[in-house]
Amino acid sequence: MTQPVVAPTSPFGFAELHGGGSRVAIVPALGGKISALEVGGRQWLWTSDVIPWAEPVDGASYVETADTGGYDECFPTVGACVVPSGVPTYGGLALPDHGELWAQRPTLDVETLGDAQQATCVWRGRRMPYRFTRVVRVDGTGAVTMRYEAANEGKARLPFLWSSHPLLPLTPRTRIVLPDGARVRVYAEHGIDLGGALHEHRWPRLTVAKQKLVDFSRPDEVGRRYACKLFLDMPAGWAAVEEDGARLEVQYDAREVPNFGLWINRRGWTPFKGSLFRRARPYLNFAFEPCIGAPDTLSDAIGPWQGAHWLEVGQTRTWTLTWKAGAKPATD
Fold this sequence. Notes:
This protein is mostly beta strands and 332 residues long. It is 5% helix and 45% strand.
């Protein structure tokens, strides 16, 4: 196996891991963003043609300044919010859009171990006392394994959400494969009536406009212009995307990663206003997100959704995702 590639070119150097025909590129200066996820001979990630790479600014809007595509990590929230006042120690704390990780450069350690290459990124909380670690490993089979740790280094229970945030292109051939019958709850809807926030459905047939069952496994066929954010409670630890005869599957332990976020944007939503909105067409993409907790904001998760998770004092929580090509659906 060749040695991992580390390109120090300022300001956007990258680390590149190879194995079994797979390639992963990681950009520390962009919050540890994974800019390339090539599995099974296919690049799966979407890249924006509107927002260029730029040094991230802590506290800025992610969707306006850093939504460049690729795969980011969101912790300890996804949406910007204020922690409810009743939470000890952290009540009233304002948390930024997409969390804290994307806006800071993690430490990076790259190594070769036998037939595998791996890169370890470590972030430290700025507003809460935590340590967040992600180890990305590419082995000789082509599997891409991501091992995570979140540790509470403070003196109070720490509420959190975590979400992976890989963005993929949405085409007429996209098929999203999730466990049949999984409970779906609506978080946001644009240009489509799914019953409003917290309305429940069952995957893959969701009720549109209170009357029509629509198969969301082929999102391009749902409507001409719409967007929505859905959260699934996962009865099994797998999910897959199929495109042009290729398949990307993620596998994990559903006891560790109990939720799944699905953002579908068929030109139904954009953060841009005014002249920039007129120049930039709304996106054709979707976010395919194994996650812990729901929905996007920690405030809603602690409140009406009752979906927040907690790190006890001194606790370290671990979980693992494995991305593979061409796998058959798991049966749990």
